Structures are given as C-alpha cells and as structure tokens.
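pinging the channel bc i need a second pair of eyes. not urgent but kinda urgent?? the chain im working w is below, pasted from the shared doc
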Amino acid sequence: MGGRMDRRAQGYLMYFDSFADFLQMGKHGLYVWLAYGSTALVLLWTWLSARQSLARVTRRLQQQAQLAARAPASAGTKMPAGAVSASEREQNLARSDESET
C-alpha cells in the first residue's frame, strides 16, 4: 500500500496499479461496465430515434408542400363529411337568433 501512496504523491493520474485492476474496478467491474454500456446504448438509441423522427417529419412536410403547390388556389381545402364551415355556422346562428325573437 505504501507503493500506491508514493505513486499518487508523485503525480500519477491512475488510481489502479494496472490496467487489469482498472477493468476489474475492485471486483465491481462487471456492474460498472454493464452500467456504462447500457447507458451508452440508451443514449445511442435515443439519438437514432430522434434522427429518424426528424427525417420522418421533414419528409411529411416536404410532401405537404408539394401537394399544396400542385393544388390550384381556387380549390380550397376539402372539409370532412358533416363539417360546417364558418360562414354556414354564422348563418345558422343568425337564423336561430331570428327565430328566438
């Protein structure tokens, strides 16, 4: 143990006596390296997933822009079946107000 203290006192950066001791981490190496590895895998998966999502959204936006550029300006947007436009809604409100008075 005295040798270890002398080496640290002399400015050595490594706490362990050898690289094998470093890998074993005082008999906790398996746990330590599995923790580092699983963390690295989760970070890698998160990064790849974010890249894939960004690419998917970018592709959809490009497709929508292309469709909007192809559609004539007078065509407008199609409304789902049973939907009421704003002007129809205003007309219905005006009719209901007239019938109440």
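so The helical segments are 2-9, 19-24, 29-70, 86-100. and The CA atoms of residues 90 and 96 lie 10 Å apart. — does that match what u expected or am i reading it wrong
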